[in-house]
Amino acid sequence: MPESTRRNPQVHRAILDAAWDLTAAGGWAAVSVDAIVARAGVGKRTVYRWWTGKAAVVLEAFLDRARANPVTTRATTAEGLLRAHARHFADLYVDTVLGRVFTGLLGAAQQDPDLAARLEEHWFEPRRAPVRAAVREVAGPDVDVDLLLDLVFAPLHYRLLTGRRPLDHTYADAVVTSVVRGVLG
Amino acid sequence: MPESTRRNPQVHRAILDAAWDLTAAGGWAAVSVDAIVARAGVGKRTVYRWWTGKAAVVLEAFLDRARANPVTTRATTAEGLLRAHARHFADLYVDTVLGRVFTGLLGAAQQDPDLAARLEEHWFEPRRAPVRAAVREVAGPDVDVDLLLDLVFAPLHYRLLTGRRPLDHTYADAVVTSVVRGVLG
Amino acid sequence: MPESTRRNPQVHRAILDAAWDLTAAGGWAAVSVDAIVARAGVGKRTVYRWWTGKAAVVLEAFLDRARANPVTTRATTAEGLLRAHARHFADLYVDTVLGRVFTGLLGAAQQDPDLAARLEEHWFEPRRAPVRAAVREVAGPDVDVDLLLDLVFAPLHYRLLTGRRPLDHTYADAVVTSVVRGVLG
Amino acid sequence: MPESTRRNPQVHRAILDAAWDLTAAGGWAAVSVDAIVARAGVGKRTVYRWWTGKAAVVLEAFLDRARANPVTTRATTAEGLLRAHARHFADLYVDTVLGRVFTGLLGAAQQDPDLAARLEEHWFEPRRAPVRAAVREVAGPDVDVDLLLDLVFAPLHYRLLTGRRPLDHTYADAVVTSVVRGVLG
DNA sequence: GCCTAAGCGAGACGGTACGTCTGGTCTTAAG
DNA sequence: CTTAAGACCAGACGTACCGTCTCGCTTAGGC
Lengths: 185, 185, 185, 185
Fold this sequence. Notes:
By secondary structure, chain A is mainly α. Chain A is 71% helix and 0% strand. Chain A has two domains: 9-55, Homeodomain-like (Arc Repressor Mutant, subunit A, Orthogonal Bundle); 69-180, Orthogonal Bundle (Tetracycline Repressor, domain 2), CATH 1.10.357. Chain A has helices at residues 9-26, 33-40, 44-50, 54-66, 78-93, 97-109, 113-138, 145-162, 169-181. Chains A, B, C, D: One of its GO terms (molecular function) is transcription cis-regulatory region binding.
């Protein structure tokens, strides 16, 4: 994500593609700066000039692809909106390269505060913002929208990360319904 | 976790302590088999004889310490029980060595299915079981208790892992209340 | 040249051989720790455990081979002794792998005092010593033997290093004769 | 040494000065094209346009400074002439920046035939020529002057390069005397 | 009370990846 | 066309860990 006037776009692209392909082929563990460099036919120096290391490259490659999948919904109720986003979450990550990259990034972010910050800034927050705004509009003013978003999205991430129980539309719907209406009412 | 008649308990202890101390001092990244071996005054072979690697050692050290902190509550309602466990979660992990080790383990588990399975078996499930049983007793029969537990504990983990917003009693209470009664009622 | 009880002799040999073969094939410039490691099928760490770098490895390989070429002469006069050694010098280095390695080492030693010291200790001095002793015996007591050796061997090295004029038996003989009898007498 | 009509003299100067200053400050190893470029405030391309690399730049800087130290003597005998040149050699190189640069160049020339040729052409030969001519005049016609020069200057270079024994006027005189009169008479 | 199997400290070993460095080529924009 | 600036490929550098292995020492049990 650094800036420069002279950056060579082909090289930039080749590096991101190499990182993506490597992750797709062998998962997070298959990616290394050495491997990226070899596959992209690029000098090591070039990678370290523009990124801090493997995580930064993979993050950018991830953002690149993930941004191509915006949520589209015409729902007009808070529940409908949340349901649409929850289902989209499942579709986006479950059994996809994107999902594997994402969990890799989340794992690495545990030991890399800088990566965590970039993830928050360039992924979590941009995704939350429109949902937050939309929900705030249709929900009453005394609703804690951020808490609501946590309650919906945290379980989805939880299932994604633990990977031991299914994360499908059924589960997404159940989460949204329960959160909106209360479990023990 | 392995078995043997001949295992030397002092050595076993020394290794776990070394792993723990290293994590306490420098975080997950400061731990390596080489470092453990150096600090414990132990042969590398000995570590690999009884564990599969650094993650397994740290996991055992973690379980060792974490089990010393059981939840105690005399609550008799589902909401009270959940609140007690949610608050205990915050106390246990926030700004503690235990918390740092835990997030390290969760991060590593993203790339290590075996570690993930052990975590589930030896930590998540043993912790869930009594809560599940207790809640099932006081809640009605038509409540999806597992979903309920997800809804409560996932947000807590979420905050712990992202680390960007506070995870305190206030938040724990808010989560439990909202989940039980519904956010939009 | 370090010592250890546990050193694996096969590995030691393989590294020296690799260094030698690389120099023979492509000269001093073709040798690098990476190349040695690749050719010997050895870990990088193993090279750096026993040597300080490429120069140290090549030096040892050089000494290894060079020691197999002792000077043999039955000369009983100072002039005869010196002539034998001068001719041997030419035979040993001119158009031989040994010669190329030697000049490489001398070149590197200009920027590496440690290498220079090792060369002096393990090569120059052990070669000088017997000649010095032998010459001292047959020459009178008021002869500066070390100066004499300089006067004979320096020109030989000079031709070897500059490489612009031939270094053959004719030249070796001329040097010895001139030094012994005086040029302008 | 290259030629061009458009060459900018200030830039030329700045590069030579940078190379010289770097060598003076940190020795041969401290010089690199990158370092020269940084210190001279010059583009890398500019250096490679006019020189073949670091060695060529340093060589030119060396010649530039060294030529400012001509030998002056009114000696009329061969021995006197040689003695003057031998002493001048010691003064010029021992414990001087010039000496350090010179040994660096000689070291590099071992792996760089082009550099060796330039050294011979622009330094060794121009220095030898006048001495050769002068000596030839005063010495008889049957003296091998080139051999004589070798015998005198080689030991001086030898001491300079090995650096393990002193190279002073006493040594210079001893060499000249011995060579002229013969060591063993 | 041996004796043989194991656990054990020590650490060498083949590997892979790291992040830094230099060399030499090439591109861009200003003059 | 020269220059400053610097991106770029290439690849060596020396370090850190990993997980396997081999060495002797010591310490159990089984005899």
